[in-house]
């Protein structure tokens, strides 16, 4: 099957075309054929598309909305000059998989999209006002362009964490608030944590119920996940992606009293404070320079900028606290796995966040840590480290394509 995987953001549309079927999944022979990104939808959009093994196609064109963006991408995908093997027109795309950020308590697994599913995703907008509306735009656009005959599947960021027990997902607030409004921790990046767990068990050659690890998805958004016997039992993001680790521009954990205090002192509304905590906090807020780890590292290396270092130290310090906390919660782990932009590339972050944890059996091999960057996969712990430390480049699109294939074929989901 040729699956079109779509990830629609507020002003962007990312896609991949992945060929897979049940046998290819079993043998891990799924094939990514092409990928693309359209940024700045709504104005002069930036295009970068690529067929695997061929040079990138780049362009800048005005694109009005997500529907226009999808049409533009499909014109390229089906252009004979693009020459994607097996794809000549849109009917060669057998199904579409959509990333949907928030499934609330309604969706604990991937599901075929129909009118009822769309309505439930719309009902969950309350819980994810920044994320679900753009995801829905991708679904509406695909439905308009492909019609009802091409199956569409929703894969939720929250679904992997639906196995968290009450003791992990409840906040210490009146239980009635959970009952009435579903206020609880949902967790995000679930598709990524799930992929890392899957990849770890393939690398180790063990069954799913033997996966006892901590996964660290460290990108612009960052979260940690405690995976016990193959299931998420705790994660650092909460009802929204603002909670947990400190991030590029998000504060992470915070005393809720601070929100009212800032609003009072700055004479701002609650929404303005939340905006500040989402967009102007985290490493950007602390450094006063940038949210970007590459730039923070060079500010520290080249100019010894104190606050750039402070931002890095706070980011890594928080990771360390979550690692220690989850190890206690799980009664020990077999491995810690780093992933996403920072986790895959920043040896400094990996070193600082696990430094001093030798007493827990965690020991990094400095040479390997420096070598495994730029999309490489491998072990960075020392031979005598009791706990293995892995770098596993994430691949959310693969999970999206596989779930889409399974749902369409009515095959069991893992
Ligand atoms: P993501 O959200 O997964 O795309 O990750 C983005 C983050 O990864 C940004 O903070 C980048 O600065 C960081 N990143 C990407 N490449 C590197 C690198 N070579 N060294 C340090 N950080 C990096």
Structure description:
- The protein is of the alpha/beta class.
- The chain folds into 2 domains: 2-156, ATPase, nucleotide binding domain (Nucleotidyltransferase, domain 5, 2-Layer Sandwich); 207-391, ATPase, nucleotide binding domain (Nucleotidyltransferase, domain 5, 2-Layer Sandwich).
- It has 16 helices and 14 strands.
- It has helices at 22-26, 66-78, 115-123, 132-146, 166-169, 175-181, 190-204, 257-266, 270-279, 282-287, 293-303, 306-330, 340-345, 347-354, 366-371, 396-408, and strands spanning 2-8, 13-19, 31-39, 44-51, 57-62, 95-100, 111-112, 152-156, 213-218, 222-228, 231-235, 335-339, 378-379, 388-391.
- The strands form 2 sheets. Strands 5-4-3-2-1-6-8-7 form an 8-stranded mixed beta sheet, sandwiched between helices. It has a 6-stranded mixed beta sheet with strand order 11-10-9-12-14-13, with helices on both faces.
- A hairpin with a 4-residue loop joins strand 3 and strand 4.
- Helix 2 packs across helix 4 (132-146) and helix 7 crosses helix 16.
- It is globular and about 55 Å long.
- The two termini are 19 Å apart.
- The mean pLDDT is 96.
- Bound molecules: adenosine monophosphate.
- Adenosine monophosphate binds at residues 219-220, 248, 292-294, 297, 340-342, 345-346.
